[in-house]
Amino acid sequence: MKMTKLAILVVMIAVALFILVPSLSWAEDGAAIYKTKCAACHGADGAGKPAAKIPSLVSDDAKKKSDADLTDMIANGGPNKKAMHAFVAKGMTPDQVKAVVAAVRDMQKK
User: Which residues contact 95 (CB under 8 A, 6 or more apart)?
Assistant: First the structure.
């Protein structure tokens, strides 16, 4: 009887991990997503291109923006939609947006 309960518990834990682990991987992917989706314009270091009016993501002004503001800009696009795309419309998931925000915050600490 105890073995049956133990086997059921092990199966339940395995199923829970199978479901949860892919959703936790966003934290690891933020830098990779930034590199493929954002770095071409904002630079690998997030410095932007002021001459081309592409803002720095590591400036004092950028650091003052809330996570909600950054999330909104990434998901829905910036004031100039032609320059700053709405990445959710281009297939980015909410978890990926959250991961990119975390990656930007990490860049701001350097």
Answer: 23, 26
